[in-house]
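One-letter codes give the sequence; the fold follows as tokens. An example follows:
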Amino acid sequence: MTTRLDRLFLLLDTGSTPLIRKSAAEQLGEVQKLHPYELNNLLSKVHVYLRSSNWDTRIAAGQAVEAIAKNVPQWEPRGAPKSEAGTAAAQCAGKILFTQFDVNKVLAFGASLLGSEGGQYDVVQSAIALDDKERLSQQRQLLNKRLGLDLAGNLGIESDNLFNDEDLHIENFNGQVSGQPAFNKPVADLVKQQLMDVTRGLSARERNRAKRKAKHLAKQISKDGSSESSAADLDPPAKKTKQDPENNGTSSDKTLIDTGDNTLNLEEMDEWPFETFCEVLMNDLFNSSWEIRHGAATGLREVIKQHGRGASKSSDTPSDQMTAVNQIWLSDLSLRLLCVLVLDRFGDFVSDEVVAPVRETCSQNLGVALKFLDVEGVQGVTSVLLQLLSQSQWEVRHGGLLGIKYLLAVRQDLTDALLPIVLPAVFRGLQDPDDDVRAVAAAALIPVSDKLVLLMPQQTPVVIDCLWQTLLDLDDLTASTNSIMILLSTLLSKPSTTTTSTSQALSELTPRLWPFFRHNILSVRKAALETFYTLLNIPDQQQPVSQWLTPILSDALRHIYQRSLLENDVDVLNLVQKVWSVLLEKAQLDYLIVASVPWLGVWLCLLMQPSRTPFEPTYLLEAKHKVREQTVGKRCPSDSGPILDKDNREYIGGAQSLNKTIVERDIDVMRSRIAGTKLLGLLAGYITKPVPNYPKDAEKPVDSLRKLFIFHLNTKSALQRYVIGQVLYQWALLNKNCDCPEDVKTKLLECLSEAIYFDEIALAFTRMQSDCRDFIASLKQQGVEMDSLFPPASILSLDQAGQLTSTVFDQVKISLKPKVLQMLDDRRKQLQITVTQTTLEQQTLTVRVLSSLAMAAVVLSVFPEKLNPVVRPLMDCIKKEDNRNIQAEAAKSLARMIEFVLEKNPNPISKIIKNLCNFLCCDSSYTPLVHQPIAVKTTENQPHEVTCDINTGILTLSNLQKAPEKNRKWLRRSLSIKSADVDVPSELLQEDSEVQQMLKIQRRGADVALSTICAYFSDKMQTKVPVLWECCINQLLTVQDTNKNSDDENLSQELVNSLQVLETVSSSFHSTVLAQVIAKLPLLSVCLQHKYTAVRHIAARCIATLCQLQTHHTMHFIIETIIPMLASTDSEIKRQGASEALANIIELLGIDILPYIVLLVVPILGCMCDQNEAVRLMATHCFANMIRLLPLEAGIPDPPEMNAEMIERKEKQREFLEQLLDGSKIECYKITVDIKAELRKYQQDGVNWLGFLNKYKLHGILCDDMGLGKTLQSICILATDHYHRDTKHKVSSIYFYSVSSQMDQLQKKLSRAVKQLTCNHRLILSGTPIQNNVLDLWSLFDFLMPGFLGTEKQFQARYGKPIIQSRDAKSTTKDQEAGALAMEALHRQVLPFVLRRLKEDVLQDLPPKIIQDYYCDLSPLQVELYEDFARSRARNDIDETVTSQDGKEKKSQAPTHIFQTIIK
């Protein structure tokens, strides 16, 4: 079996999500913390994954290095005595490193670092004996195969012209191209040579390493008395290499960490713990494979980030040279990283942007190193980076700017000195012909934009001008758009830059932002909008907005408005609304009217666009990018010419959501429509304001709006009516003084009273009419009289069509012949589907249109004499609307309408609230029925599946046992869907599913409406809407005495419904109202003792909800009142109610229960031995949930509200948790009976553990290795416990223990019998608890703590299936990951109850191994029996062999005879 460490590395490599991989990395850090001596072993294993070809694996390996490094103490050696001469030399060497290092030589003579060495494309070694012509032919065949052209001839495709012989370079096998001189050197050798030239020999690190090696050898010689070591051992250790199988034994550049004795004693170390690891990674920086370079840079970054200050320090270094040695090492590392920036050429395209992972990570690494470098070192790095910016290769300039970006970001303490030095070079980068270089240049200035404006105010306008000019060269394919836009927005937001920011007028510059409002990258659109928002907020005293905004106002309005229609991101839509609001505020009113009124009709039509129909391009304002020249010397996706979008059509809600589901697409579309109506509503509030000197003969904007509104309301289009209703709603909602014309209000009320068929269903309605006429004609042909029911040439309504396919057909089918009936019944079913779909579509449109108009009527305070035309649409929307956003708006309007009609008498408030409460309680799967709390079962109960009926049982437990695994929401539901084992017709299942969906929508709408009403009236809810308060509390007030529970099921159902309302709206109560509810906790505790199961269940849920809202007060009540109910031996109902309440609290609070979890554990443990099976299983489930959280409890402080008494109680019970999670803290158990044996230490520890389990009424598995004394340990605890009981009660007592040995070996019937034993303490002795099958572990715990691991099916789903699949030879990486996660979770849950020691773990306690052979002579009778059995057994074996050879099926194996063990 794999170890836990192996599983962690498996998850590090194959985890399906970054979160899983990161969790594995953090746990590796914990391993380092627990085993500090294994640092090198861990790093050597992680190094393998740093070289992985998988990106996610390398990132996770870097996180593992970070986690490991965090758990290694900082390295601060004392050092050797001071050396004055050495100090000066060391400091001088550090300066020379930068002043004499020749970057140009590296660039000129160093080999470029590409994606790989290209060995996979070379001619194979078998071609070494071929001549040039044969080798060329073979290389051509190999290339054809790799390019997939080997099948081209079979398909009739001519591929000979794709490449010729000149394209195929024939290389010598030493890597040199024929006819070309060897020019470029390996980079590592080149860098090492330059460093040696600078330092005149070995580097300081190598010299120190050689000294430590010599010192170590001297110690060994002195210790061993041997002098066999040669002088060669004093040389610096060479890197170990391994053979690359693909190179047929040739040496590769893959370096490995020494895998000898890697144990590490930090107290005896002489050198930096990460010395060897970093040397290997620095060598990997120059590997020909980009993945290895990236992994090395990632690992180095994490090490230096944590331990850069101690790098290269050693105990042999003079104390006065420590800092200098550290600076030299960091300078050495910085130069190596700079060399990678110079030579790396690898890049890839991701979403139109170049990604250079090696250069980016090396720059981050450089930034980390710069954090620890002194000022002179930073200046040296800066000088080299500036040299990089003057090179001709764009990759070198790109790498140099990346370094400057992190230099400015990290060393902000030196910004005042660095910024003037680097700004000219960065400014040239902003003007660079390469787009990716410009992107990094802009990103480099963003972190220091404040200092740029402050320190260099004259240069800031020049930079801003450059950014504006750069916008002309950007398009949808340029990578720098986002960075440049963000930098421009950041600089413009500084107050001091607005007056002198540019030499051109903003009216000319701002339109350059328009194309980016429709950019395909979300962050670019957002940055463009934020830039425009910044410009609009320029203070008028610096630069009046109206001066530059007026010429471009019309275009600005059109671009912002159409962005609301085409956008599907919520954050961007909110930003659009914010920009629109400021735009209207800053615009002069007269110019705003001129710019917007002519477009009102078009904008309304755009809002009414069908979701699946693209916009007419002429109605959308398009801003094209300026065509830019191709970048020379760099290849990008657009080099081959412009990319033509085959489908450039725009849709409302965004074209990106076209592939979503119908529901998701509808959400996006309706969100865009509502966003557009908000913009028009704001606009209507501005343009209807009075304008001085407005021309008398000109039409006022309000008249234009009136005509448009009435025109669209007169149509029969659902979209047109809906949009007008929403615009009116937003107009009145967003503007206090809404000057809506009276004739519009009148028309609004008329539309609310109309019942029409909408144009959107015209096609479906016409088809339905045709099908209905054909169906009626068919019935007439069979002699059925239909004219009286459906007159000829009449148009059938949807209700009549529904009657035709249901009641009418049922009445006339008795007169039809069987064959004809079958044919007509099939047609009826098809027609019924058509009618149902058309009716559903009409209903959806009706609900949305009427609710939109009703919302407008409410905010406009336009009500008819009878409120039904306004109330009914809002209630229908709450009851039937599938879109959550529309439901929420209808709920708000309903709350406003209730406020409006408060003074009317009579008013419909009481009826509205009661209907909402009925809606809320309509779903019996959520609100249980008293007479039938759970669906009638049609299948046999599973093991430990507790029956739940009207009076007995725990409904939460029943829901949990039936719930699918990993779906905790089922805890609050009582299942109404029947078992899958029952043969139910598909039509009924579909109908049941549709009903459940309707009930879910209805319940959700009522939840939103009631919560909105409570929040709307806040602390005045009890006086303004007393009926809602009564629905929550009145029934609860009737529950005063446990012994006087009502036997009336109807009254009890009203109590359940009332508590359901209370649970729903509690989270929306004002604090003063909530305090009154908290005061009713004693009444809720009485409900926990109610005779009906449903009442107990809903009361438990209410208490859990209150606990979530007022945790401390409620938890104090629970600990003082409900916890004692668990010990009520006189009433099972009390214990069931209390345990159900705790289960709901633990489930709902989750991690928030940690401050109180200690106070709950011990009482719940006591219930795990309860006589009532439901209580026992519920308590076990609670404990299983809490055991996962217990390790986190130690780090949680006590709440400030917790009183001293509870804190003291918590401290006492915390001892139990510490002992449960850490067996070494368990108190010594005193054995009070005489044991004629001397217990060894590990045996005494085992007895202590068994005594701990006994003390807290826990159960466990003692699974020590064979021969370690499990029986002796169990006898000790049994005898001592029996003695204590006998002494206490002074009577002969029976054992309360149930000890089972090898439960997994017992037969099924015997196993069931053993599990039925009644006992207070259960113990299993087993040498192999989970060796054979993981399901055996469930069987063991099913005996120990039934329900602790769930039901058998749940255990198989959660643990068994993933673990078994991961062990399959054909398992995928996802299977292995799932298995590792399942095994980790299973171990975490069961290990506190399992004690296992192997022989190798306790060798120090065991005596020497003695083998003695004893011979036993058999008696004559035994001899005769043995021989008789052997003969009979041998004959049977022969018979079975002959049978198997004849090809016949073997008989089932007989049970093992007792004598058979003798001959084994």
Remarks:
- The longest strand covers residues 251-256.
- The longest helix spans residues 818-859.
